[in-house]
Amino acid sequence: MAEAQARQRGGYTDDGSAMAESGVRFEVDGEIATITLDRPEKRNAMTFATWSGLARIGESLPEQVRVVVVKGEGPSFSAGIDLHMFTSDGVPGQGSFSSAAKSGEAGIEQRVRQFQAGFLWLRRPEIVSIAVVRGHAIGAGFQLALACDLRIVAEDVSFCMKEPALGLVPDLTGTKPLVDLVGLAKAIDICLTARTVHADEAMRIGLAEKVVAGGDLDQAVQDKVAELLSTNREAAIATKRLLQGAQARTLEEQSAAERSEQAARIKALFG
Ligand code: CAA
């Protein structure tokens, strides 16, 4: 049993050193996986290795997992990219933006594509991902929260899309969910001012599903996970697929998609 758990904890990689370098912990307990950003002394600042680590978790997520909880150790969810990545030395062993810039535009795009893979899988229909956000969620940290399906936040949350203030664009898949959630005007306001969004506003504009006192955060997440696990797994997957496709379809197309998903469900349940 202990051995099985250890294997699952290793989950995304059998290489413990890569896991340690990524600054991410990963645990699986039955249908629930928990990803913890684990550099609290640096406010969970992320490096290239963090994003590669997230991608590897996605690649090897055990099939039984239905809910993925993403959280940060310590007072902040994440202070975004490790600012040492902007120095010419970078973070030891992980390169820097200066070294990445030498690879030319196509090379940079290829690197960013790899990093984005660490975020995109959190939207898979087979899982529901929940970002549990306390304190700062800045830049890449904000985008990681946006990559999840749901955000449950503490009263002290502060979201900030810092990239434009640093001469960059948000490129870790955050722009589309932000616009989908809050609308274009509000997304422009939030990103192009790099201002901070606090809990009340986050709740009001749809960035957060729930705001609770910091001490109640774990319980609120446990309750949401239990609610999510109470529905039928296959129906949940099919329903998420339908909901995800809804915006891009006409009413007629969406109705057809509903018919098709339901036919498969009825066949599976009663056929
Ligand atoms: N990178 C590296 N180290 C960081 C860090 C970061 N992003 N954020 C915080 N730290 C470190 C601090 O240097 C400090 O380390 P030492 O104790 O060794 O000095 C430690 O974490 C604690 O930080 P603070 O004392 O500053 O803690 P605080 O609670 O007073 O403030 C904070 C927290 C508001 C997050 C502040 O640390 C801060 O503003 N950090 C920088 C945030 C930032 O600009 N991030 C970049 C976002 S853009 C992005 O993410 C772009 C992208 O993906 C391409």
What does the secondary structure layout of this molecule look like, with pairings?
Layout: H1 2-10, H2 16-22, E1 24-29, E2 32-37, H3 48-59, E3 67-72, H4 97-101, H5 104-120, E4 128-133, E5 136-138, H6 140-147, E6 150-154, E7 158-160, H7 175-182, H8 184-193, E8 196-198, H9 199-205, E9 210-212, H10 217-229, H11 233-246, H12 251-270
Parallel strand pairs: 2-3, 3-4, 4-6, 5-7, 6-9
Antiparallel strand pairs: 1-2, 7-8
Helix pairs in contact: 2-3, 3-5, 7-8, 11-12
InterPro entries: ClpP/crotonase-like_dom_sf, Ech1-like, Enoyl-CoA_hyd/isom_CS, Enoyl-CoA_hydra/iso
Protein name: Enoyl-CoA hydratase/carnithine racemase
Organism: Nonomuraea jiangxiensis
Number of helices: 12
Helix content: 40-55%
Q: Give the overall average pLDDT.
A: 93
Distance between the terminal alpha carbons, to the nearest Å? 37 Å
Task: List descriptors.
single chain; 271 residues; alpha/beta; 2-enoyl-CoA Hydratase, Chain A, domain 1; 2 domains; 6-stranded mixed sheet; 3-stranded mixed sheet; 9 strands; globular; disordered N terminus; binds acetoacetyl-coenzyme A; isomerase activity
In short:
This is Enoyl-CoA hydratase/carnithine racemase. It is built from 12 helices and 9 strands.
Description:
The protein is an alpha/beta fold and 271 residues long. The chain has helices spanning 2-10, 16-22, 48-59, 97-101, 104-120, 140-147, 175-182, 184-193, 199-205, 217-229, 233-246, 251-270, and strands at residues 24-29, 32-37, 67-72, 128-133, 136-138, 150-154, 158-160, 196-198, 210-212. The strands form two sheets. It has a six-stranded mixed β-sheet with strand order 1-2-3-4-6-9, sandwiched between helices. The longest helix is centred in the C-terminal third of the chain and has 20 residues, at 251-270. The protein starts with a helix and ends with a helix. The model is unreliable at 1-14 (pLDDT under 50). It binds acetoacetyl-coenzyme A (CAA). Acetoacetyl-coenzyme A (CAA) binds at residues 42-43, 45, 76, 79-84, 136, 138-140, 162-163, 166, 168, 172. Acetoacetyl-coenzyme A (CAA) is lined by residues 42-43, 45, 76, 79-84, 136, 138-140, 162-163, 166, 168, 172. It comes from Nonomuraea jiangxiensis. GO terms for molecular function: isomerase activity. Belongs to the enoyl-CoA hydratase/isomerase family. This is Enoyl-CoA hydratase/carnithine racemase.
